[in-house]
Design goal:
This protein has about 325 residues and is mainly alpha-helical. The chain has one domain. The chain is built from 13 helices and no strands. It starts with a helix and ends in an 8-residue tail after the last helix.
């Protein structure tokens, strides 16, 4: 219910903003978009998901070997469910682990341990990058002060959260054992694979490099989309808007962040003086490609994974 209410409020805000600028003006702006820059926006989104798939495949290596295309297909299947289920991120992670485990003949629990590392690692990295992009982009022009303290505090908080989870891992596992005795074996297998991944120095490099590539892929998509409609955003401003939008979308719990991500991304752009029709046009183009990959490509992957293997039985 909370996710539904947030979605309704965000959709109303978007509709009101679009109505103020005029639906016709918005349509004309979209129709006049530079096709080359629109194509670059689409390529940036595709690159974002390809980098995510490669990061996920490399993190898996201590636990299971999987071809990139198989890991990518399981990932996109999970993205599809994230885009259609309210607060679907946890369910999407389970679906990703189950589908890949079934495809490579591995139990779901150890694979899910790697999914947790992938999700938590990217979330923390995303917070750090967002904490840098937003204040730097919104800082008053000509100011001698720099938001270094804000960036450092956000980075310290993210690292502290990761360390707290690591130090409390045994306590968390004991609580799960007490509450769900039948799941003890599954929990142990997931935690064991997560420990194995985190024990390798290479895993942290994969999270850093792969996560940064995926994060900046989203920001680049909005950057190219803004240029396509004449908004002329700088990369810092595009990164700030994308960071706020993606974070708000995840926290809101609406399917795929629909409505909320677009509304949150619009706020900093309008604050920077970007005309609303151009800001909304850029956001809609970038988000359209996100939904196309998540729902259309992800849905096709989910259907492919759902097909029964082998011959039919009587």
């Amino acid at each position: 219910m909370a996710a539904t209410l947030v979605f309704i409020a965000a959709a109303a805000f978007l509709a009101r903003t679009i109505a103020a600028t005029g639906w016709r003006s918005l349509w004309e702006r979209l129709a006049a978009a530079d096709p080359l820059l629109v194509a670059l926006s689409a390529i940036a989104v595709a690159t974002r998901y390809a980098a995510w798939g490669k990061r996920w495949q490399l993190l898996l290596r201590p636990v299971a070997r999987a071809a990139w295309w198989r890991a990518q297909r399981a990932l996109l299947s999970s993205v599809f469910f994230y885009n259609i289920i309210p607060a679907g991120r946890p369910a999407a992670g389970l679906i990703r682990a189950r589908q890949l485990g079934r495809g490579i003949g591995q139990p779901t629990a150890p694979v899910y341990g790697v999914v947790l590392v992938d999700q938590v690692g990217y979330s923390l990295l995303s917070l750090v990058l967002s904490a840098h992009a937003v204040p730097v982009a919104l800082w008053p022009a000509g100011s001698r002060r720099h938001p270094a303290a804000t960036v450092a505090a956000a980075a310290a908080a993210s690292v502290g959260a990761l360390l707290l989870l690591w130090w409390r891992r045994e306590s968390i596992a004991r609580r799960i054992r007490r509450r769900i005795p039948s799941a003890v074996g599954t929990v142990e297998a997931a935690l064991g694979s997560a420990r194995l991944v985190l024990s390798r120095a290479r895993s942290y490099a994969v999270i850093l490099i792969g996560g940064s590539a995926a994060w900046y892929g989203g920001a680049l998509s909005l950057f190219f989309a803004s240029r396509a409609v004449g908004a002329d955003l700088g990369m810092g401003a595009a990164a700030a808007a994308w960071a706020l939008g993606s974070t708000a979308g995840i926290v809101s719990g609406s399917p795929g962040g629909a409505g909320v991500a677009e509304s949150a991304a619009l706020v900093p752009l309008v604050a920077m003086g970007i005309p609303p029709d151009r800001a909304i046009s850029a956001i809609l183009i970038a988000r359209l490609f996100e939904y196309a990959v998540g729902i259309l490509v992800g849905g096709a992957c989910a259907l492919a994974e759902a097909r029964p293997r082998g011959g039919a039985t009587a």
